[in-house]
Please model this.
Amino acid sequence: MENKVIDESNQGEALLIEDPSHPNGKKLFLESYGCAMNFSDSEIVASILKDKGFSTTQNFFEADVIFVNTCAIREGAEQRVRKRLTEYRKAKKLKPDLIIGVLGCMAERLKSQFLEQEKLVDIVVGPDAYRSLPELIEIAETGQKAVNVLLSKEETYADIAPVRLGSNGVTAFISITRGCDNMCSFCVVPFTRGRERSRDPQTIVNEATDLFNEGYREVTLLGQNVDSYLWTGGGLKKENVSDEELKNATTFSQLLEKVALIHYDLRVRFSTSHPKDMLDDVLHTIAKYENICNYVHLPVQSGNSRILEMMNRGYTREWYLNRIDAIRRIIPDAGISMDIISGFCSETEEEHKDTLSLMETVKYDFGYMFAYSERPKTLAERKLKDDVPVEVKSRRLAEIVELQLKHSAYRTKQGVGKVHKVLVEGTSKKSKEELFGRNSQSTVVVFPKENYKKGDYVNVLVTNCTGGTLIGTAL
Ligand code: SAH
Ligand code: SF4
Ligand code: F3S
Model:
């Protein structure tokens, strides 16, 4: 894993599926921007359309339908999508009945406004309405515009078997919750993804078991806040869960255990942990099972308690550092990564320095770092002033990134001279003679191929490293 300063360079990528058994002769071009959740949703979309007989293409000029699954997290993410739409315009000119659909978070945020702003768009569909896609396509085929942006309190797509897209056949994502109830003041996700709901644990275990039987060796359980996963027999979390219900409920740590028990050769990862909800029970479960990876992504956002309060994150600097201590105590060799936002409303130079000093204390393995971008409708947009100048946000971000690069190099170096159990994900980008995979801490390890292959577990003695990658030979 590498550090990322996110400038929305998250590439949209054409996603391909195997040809359907009953082709309808129509071709779909599907691409996905944004987070792993969106990517995972595209696998649901692919499944729904494959059932209707669509095949896929990597060339949008060949497509009958173009779907772009969008992200709204920062302004830059939306600008990328708008730019992409101007490229689709060329295809629409050549083929007037081409249908263009905008899916995902930006569709949900803008709703039918999208149709007014971008005349070439035919379909706007939010994250909870993908089951209606075949109908929406039918409407669009008659020349009308089609919108479905209803958010649901129940929808989890639990019964839809995702079609694995762009897959390496080794690692896969499984969504365990949808939506978010946290209302961090900077964040648009609660508006684009709706209320938090958990998915039936049995369907999660079944999906992971199927993946294992198909040869997959790693699953990542996805949720905006995995620690608040709670299954009490219905999706939406109730305000008051009775003691009786709680006794029969499945918590995140119990879910992790269920998935870990499927097979000791199935690695389990999860993202994202929330500092306010990540308690010791989860850490003990991680420590107990060798196949649950020793890696926690624990976004901090800021190292200053006043800013955290304004962000409505629900923890202080001290609480966060106490959680870091708990990780180090219970899982001594854990890899830890973060998300940080620079230049949130009213952040002073001193408060920015608190973020740097927190980083110095934790020395993260890697991180995702962003400049604050104000989002419509959020608490911050309504109540706070986006008053840190752009240049200051960027300079603070650059300082955060520089420090993180130093810490990544430090952490990577600590891995040299040790043996790492690596799950091979594929051939290294740099050389066909080398394989790459990740260790339990999620650091990338590269080593000569010999007779090993994708999906193997290999013990690699690491003898060298670059800033973020370990280099070694198989034992
Ligand atoms: N659910 C996850 C975060 C999902 S969004 C969590 O709570 O940790 C991924 C990251 O994008 C966030 O952690 C945050 O660092 C960043 N982000 C979200 N909204 C942002 C905004 N308005 N401006 C800049 N970065 C933002
Ligand atoms: Fe956004 Fe906060 Fe929910 Fe994460 S926990 S998705 S940052 S509201
Ligand atoms: Fe993900 Fe972007 Fe939506 S980060 S949840 S795709 S706003």
